[in-house]
Specification:
It is elongated and about 70 Å long. It has a 6-stranded parallel beta sheet, with helices on both faces. About 35% of the residues are buried. By secondary structure, it is an alpha/beta fold. The chain is built from 12 helices and 8 strands. The chain is about 35% helix and about 10% strand. The chain folds into 2 domains: about 160 residues, 3-Layer(aba) Sandwich (Rossmann fold), CATH 3.40.50.720; about 140 residues, Alpha-Beta Barrel (TIM Barrel), CATH 3.20.20.100. Bound molecules: NADP nicotinamide-adenine-dinucleotide phosphate. The site of NADP nicotinamide-adenine-dinucleotide phosphate has 25 residues, from helix 1 and strand 5.
C-alpha cells in the first residue's frame, strides 16, 4: 500500500490579522496545520498556536529587527495601503519569502458602474505610475485615495519581476459580529430611525432582492420584525438578465435548483423564484417586471405555488449565500464607514 504523501506545514506570516477577516484567515491557516506568525503593533494577541511579533510595518528598522533571520513560505500582507508601505515591505521581504500576497481591493478598478465586464487585466500594476511623494500618511488623503493607494502599492511590488508577488483584489466584505465598518447594519439602522419618526405611517421598504442579489437580507428580516412590507424590486434579477440565468447559476456545485423545483411542479423557474421570495416572510411582496400578459399571469400564479420545507431549503442553498454577499459601496449608496485609521 502506498504511503499517504506527507504535506509539509507552511511557514506563513500574516501582517495585521487582529481585527476582521484577517482573524478568520489566521484561524483557517492554523486549522490547516500551517505554522503561523502574526505581526502587528500589539493591540491584541493572536490565537494560541500562532507566534506573535510586535512591530510597526511603517518603521523599516524595527520591522527588519523583529523579523531577524526568519523566512517564510508565504507572507500575507493585510494592511498595506500605500506605495510607501509597499516599498518598505519589498525591501524587507526580498529573499525572505517564497510568495508575498497583498490583500488588495476591487477599488483598484475605476469601472464599478460599467455594464461591460471588468477584466483582471484592466488594471495592469506594471503600467501604473507610482508617486511616493503624495501625502500618503494623511488620513483624509488616504481615505479619498484608497483605490489609488492600493493600485500604486500593487505597482511597487509588481515592478520587481524577481519579487514573488500576488495581489488578491477582495470585494467589499460585509457582516459578522465584528464587522467594524457598520456597513451591513447601515440600511437597517435607517429603517429603524424612520420607524421611530414615522411610526405607523411607515408601511413598506422597497429594495432590490432576488435569488442572485441578497444584500438586503438584514432589511428584509428587520421588516418582518417591525411588521413592515418588504417589496423586492428586480426579484428575478432584471428582465433581460434574469438571476436564474445569471449569478445564481454561476455556483457550479448547486446547479439548477430553481429549474429542478420548477420541473417537479411543471411551472416556470420564475414562478418558483417568486414563490421562494413570498415564503421568505409574510410581509414580502415581490414586484416583478413584465412586458407580456402571459408573463404577468405566470408571475401572479406564484401566489398559489406552495413549496415544501425541503424545497425551500434546497432553494435557500441555491440562492447566493448571504454571508458572501458583497456589493459596490459606490453603487449602493453612501461610502462605507472606514475602520480605525480610515480604511476598511
Ligand atoms: N473590509 C472590506 O470590505 C475590504 C474589502 C477589500 C479589501 N479589504 C482589505 O482588507 C484588509 C484589512 O483586513 P482586516 O480588516 O481583516 O484587517 P486585519 O487583517 O485584521 O489587520 C488589521 C490589524 O492590522 C494591524 N496593523 C495596522 N497597521 C499596522 C502597522 N502599521 N503595522 C503593524 N500592524 C498594523 C492592526 O493591529 P495593531 O493595532 O495591533 O497594529 C489591526 O488590528 C485591508 O488591506 C483592506 O484594504 C477590505
Amino acid at each position: 500500500m502506498r504511503k499517504a504523501r506527507e504535506v509539509k506545514a507552511r511557514e506563513v506570516l500574516v501582517i495585521g490579522g487582529s481585527r476582521y477577516f484577517g482573524k478568520r484567515l489566521i484561524a483557517r491557516l492554523l486549522a490547516a496545520g500551517d505554522r503561523v506568525t502574526v505581526l502587528n503593533r500589539g493591540s491584541s494577541a493572536p490565537p494560541p498556536g500562532a507566534v506573535h511579533l510586535v512591530a510597526d510595518r511603517d518603521d523599516e528598522k524595527s520591522l527588519t529587527a523583529v523579523l531577524g533571520s526568519r523566512t517564510f513560505d508565504a507572507v500575507v500582507d493585510q494592511v498595506c495601503y500605500t506605495p510607501r508601505q509597499a516599498s518598505i515591505a519589498r525591501r524587507v521581504f526580498a529573499g525572505r519569502t517564497r510568495r508575498y500576497v497583498l490583500t488588495s481591493t476591487v477599488e483598484v478598478y475605476e469601472y464599478e458602474d460599467s455594464i461591460a465586464p471588468v477584466r483582471e487585466t484592466d488594471v495592469d500594476p506594471a503600467a501604473v505610475p507610482v508617486d511616493l511623494e503624495l501625502p500618503w500618511e494623511e488620513t483624509e488623503f488616504l481615505d479619498t485615495h484608497y483605490g489609488e493607494g492600493k493600485r500604486q502599492a500593487e505597482a511597487v511590488f509588481a515592478a520587481d519581476p524577481g519579487f514573488p508577488f500576488t495581489a488578491v483584489r477582495v470585494a467589499h466584505v460585509l457582516g459578522g459580529d465584528d464587522d467594524f465598518t457598520g456597513r451591513a447594519e447601515h440600511y437597517a439602522s435607517r429603517i429603524r430611525a424612520a420607524h421611530r419618526v414615522l411610526g405607523d405611517r411607515l408601511v413598506s421598504v422597497q429594495n432590490r432582492y432576488s435569488p442572485a442579489v441578497r444584500d438586503s437580507e438584514a432589511e428584509l428580516r428587520l421588516c418582518a420584525e417591525l411588521g413592515l412590507a418588504f417589496l423586492p424590486w428586480s426579484p428575478l434579477g432584471g428582465i433581460s438578465r434574469s438571476s436564474l440565468d445569471g449569478p445564481s447559476q454561476v455556483a457550479d456545485a448547486r446547479p439548477g435548483a430553481f429549474r429542478a423545483v420548477a420541473r417537479a411542479h411543471g411551472v416556470s423557474p420564475q414562478r418558483v423564484a417568486l414563490a421562494w421570495l413570498l415564503a421568505r416572510s409574510p410581509g414580502v411582496i415581490p414586484i416583478p417586471g413584465a412586458s407580456r400578459p402571459e408573463t404577468i399571469r405566470d408571475s401572479a400564479a406564484a401566489a398559489d405555488l406552495v413549496l415544501d420545507a425541503q424545497e425551500l431549503e434546497l432553494l435557500n442553498d441555491a440562492a447566493v449565500p448571504v454571508e458572501t454577499v458583497c456589493r459596490s459601496a459606490r453603487r449602493s449608496g453612501p461610502r462605507p464607514r472606514r475602520g480605525p485609521g480610515g480604511r476598511a
